Amino acid sequence: DPVGADMVMSAVMDLHNTVGTTVVLFESRLVNVVRYATRLILLHKGQIIGDGPMGKMVVNEELLKQTGLMVPPVTKAALAYKEQGLISGEELPLSIEELKEALSGNLNKGA
Length: 111
Hints:
6 helices
């Protein structure tokens, strides 16, 4: 339920922003948390197999496959756009909003 997942994540982010506390969240649907989390720790059979910034971890398809996760669609699109030179920078957009901004910013530079 995407709407329900967004409501839960919104409440979690409100808690984080209001209290200023770190939130540890276990989620098997990466697409639900990729735009909120700053760090991703991947577990496989009880062992940490990956730990790093969300933007770097979410593109590591090999590690994600080991955990049964998939590269989120917006990340796949961002990778394709980056390969075509339509977006630049170290960090990939992690949400549709960020991808739109990256694309429009690049188009504006070329205009």
